[in-house]
């Protein structure tokens, strides 16, 4: 920002502090820490609770969903969600209620056994590294952290991870075994990977022959506008590039039906899927087939799921608009923050000036607005520039969001003055 | 058997073979491979499917079970199932649909991180061994096998594992990190551990300071008669013996409500539970709370669950009785097989003469009766005496069981003649 702008901001300090005290006295208690659906969104899926009842608990092929059996999910769930993930029906496993669990187990199994084409279990190697495009999703990074996998930060741009950096890294270092990706409406930056990025990820030369893309397609149908960026089909690109086993695609209905009461799924080459099933066989006798049947009964087909997501957008869009409206009203022209304008997903990504984010979040907390802790969007929770803030607009009501964004804007101004 | 008995049996050979051909011509297709509940048992829990509906999805404390949150389960599920496992409410985690998954993950985490008081992760040690009382549950043994844990067979008697053997082994070898147990209506022998066995397990001196009992209490309320053996409370015994963190107790409603659509749980000391929760936090955002609420709504309380199990017994008891009736009719007095008369659980355990089991099961298969593969009840599927057969009476109808047991008895006679 210009020194003139800074002086103007500093001149307001006293009135800003007065505002801050006034917010504090209101004893707000607003929670925007996580991307939780709001009750109205959850209401949309209420009929699913009774879509399987005392008289219709059998799958289309006659399977009694109340009994044991079926390691990879019921047939109609594989049909529906293979379309959802854009893979073949023999390229999917439908799991339990948590795609994070599938990702964690996939990584743990790679450490213990290796992936299907590993020479050694990853955990037996002196060093395992993963590329972590950042800002990204904290729970991906936590899996690496807890398993002792070294994380290499690569920056994100409007097309996805910086592919020049990625290609250079993976071509030189065979201890780099994979990369985390949220390819559509990325968490938190909101961008969708360009066709070129998907192609380069699929076709790049990797020094590790058993390199894997952990592709968390958590928001594939989570559009906010009619402008729906098309994501290139990575499994097809991998096959065309001669790397058919490179990608694990994860999906979930946690933000479609019920958060924690949904389904998870993994799509990949048949070779990978067969290998994964051989490992799952030691873990469980099978997933909750009744909940899978509930989902298929409720959606009927992919068009039904898409229609359902339009209703989510109708609830979410005004919330995202309110966030950007207040940020624009309070901060535009000041050059002290920039923020994203996502076309889908769950987050608005905001950057303060360097060195401000921790202070902003502490101030907001003091004023009763809880935000995702500073640094969370980076490996080891260390944002090197201390500037990134993830805003999760889904849970609060619109009027609460207005208030929360006024508080946040005020805290950004105050923190900027403090460090300037 | 006496040579006279054998001669009498051999004299029947021709008529036995004729019977066998006659069974074969009937093209039976009876499956007794696994302990699957029958449809009538599953019907008992049908009201659970709609016990959570569009208007009552909140837990007693107001938690919206449709949303994220709550790593260890909803409060009322912890209340009910802590009574079920006989632990305190802060000594339990309610998981997803599979207790096998909880056991697997507990073992995997011990390999990767160690248990709470380990000096090193078990996977970093040159050797890890587990005691496997046998005959036992094949899926326990498979977990050890896939993780490269060496299995030490210890024999089972009417009071549980041979504790003289167990005590000697664990006192001498610090690479023995644990033991698998099915303490009530044991799979497959049907016995319940005596108070003395539980006490000795709890109090024995182990060379490994981080020794663990993996205590799969899968059949704790699965009585078949009014004669209900009481299992001593192992967590209390461990605490009294100064080994409070020694035991992980696993439970499941897979054979209470829906197989694969139930709940799993782990009970242990608070220290262990806190450690487990710290690991689960990397795996998942939380379990399916809606299904937990369904269960609590359906049972209301532990008395409700107990009443429910009485209805299961009414269905299962005639099946178990039919199995023993036919075995007695066909085989008693011949001294070519012995079998259990369990007071609960899911299995009747049968021993043929040494070296017969594989052949019996192959013959039965030829005649259209599928049984659990020979050897399954031993580590690495190797029954050293090739004599143990696990009979799972729950799934077939009584008339099918009659037929299947006639076939089995016939095959036992034929196999005995072959090896004699």
What does this structure look like?
Two copies of one chain form a homodimer. Helices cover 42% and strands 14% of the residues of chain A. The radius of gyration of chain A is 23 Å and the shape is globular. In chain A, the strands form three sheets. Chain A has an eight-stranded mixed beta sheet, sandwiched between helices. Chain A has a three-stranded antiparallel beta sheet with strand order 10-11-13, with helices on one face. Chain A has a two-stranded parallel sheet with strand order 1-12. Chain A contains 14 helices and 13 strands. The first copy, chain A, is an alpha/beta fold and 420 residues long. The mean pLDDT of chain A is 96. Chains A and B meet through helix 5, helix 6, helix 10 and helix 11 of A and helix 5, helix 6, helix 10 and helix 11 of B.
How would you briefly describe this protein structure?
Two copies of one chain form a homodimer. Chain A is an alpha/beta fold and about 425 residues long. Chain A has 14 helices and 13 strands.
The greatest interface here is: A-B, 53 and 52 residues
Order of helices and strands of chain A: HHEHHEHEHEEHEHEHEEHHHEEHEEH
Structural category of chain A: alpha/beta
Strand order of the largest sheet of chain A: 2-9-8-7-6-3-4-5
Give the overall pLDDT of chain A as a whole number: 96
Beta-strand residue percentage of chain A: 5-15%
The backbone outline of chain A, from C-alpha atoms, is globular
Low-confidence residue ranges of chain A: none
Q: What oligomeric assembly is this protein in?
A: homodimer
The count of helical stretches of chain A stands at 14
Would you report the number of β strands of chain A? Answer: 13
Rg over CA atoms of chain A: 23 Å
How far apart are the termini of chain A?
10 Å
Main sheet summary of chain A: 8 strands, mixed
Helix fraction of chain A, binned, reads: 40-55%
